[in-house]
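Design job #97: recover the sequence.
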């Protein structure tokens, strides 16, 4: 059973986060190992395994980037352990520009401005990714995931800036 099936959701990039959380809590209550305290060792072990699977599935589906990677994995494209680099010269140039910009940040105002611009770019890429996943253009979607990974790394580095 895949993660979407576990939660009774369609295998789509755009999911209702509140509904996912509600279904997670309901399943968590049903499957929690404490409910099997008086059960056999086998049933206790199964409850622990199911709870672990449920938690993994929830963590995967609740974050858009990991959800997209999972969808691609279901379609036969595994990005988790790949060593392939993005071959988009325009994006590679933008990466270099972002790196230089991060080095030149001198104030909290600069960080906020960069954060706002980065958030806009991430939203734009996520919109593009949703469209590509819906049309099942998996190779193009995989490239957008690679771009988003870079953007999320930049986001993390921006958050770490202290002024």
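Job complete. Output follows.
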């Amino acid at each position: 059973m895949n993660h979407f099936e576990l939660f009774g959701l369609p295998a789509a990039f755009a999911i209702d986060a509140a509904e996912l959380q509600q279904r997670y809590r309901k399943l968590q209550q049903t499957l929690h190992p404490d409910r099997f305290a008086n059960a056999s060792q086998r049933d206790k072990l199964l409850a622990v395994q199911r709870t672990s699977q449920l938690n993994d599935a929830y963590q995967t589906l609740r974050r858009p980037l990991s959800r997209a990677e999972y969808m691609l994995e279901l379609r036969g494209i595994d990005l988790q352990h790949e060593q392939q680099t993005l071959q988009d010269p325009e994006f590679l140039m933008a990466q270099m520009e972002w790196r230089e910009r991060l080095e030149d940040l001198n104030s909290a105002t600069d960080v906020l401005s960069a954060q706002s611009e980065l958030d806009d770019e991430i939203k734009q890429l996520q919109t593009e990714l949703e469209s590509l996943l819906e049309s099942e253009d998996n190779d193009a979607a995989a490239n957008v995931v690679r771009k988003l990974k870079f953007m999320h790394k930049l986001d993390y580095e921006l958050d770490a800036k202290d002024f």
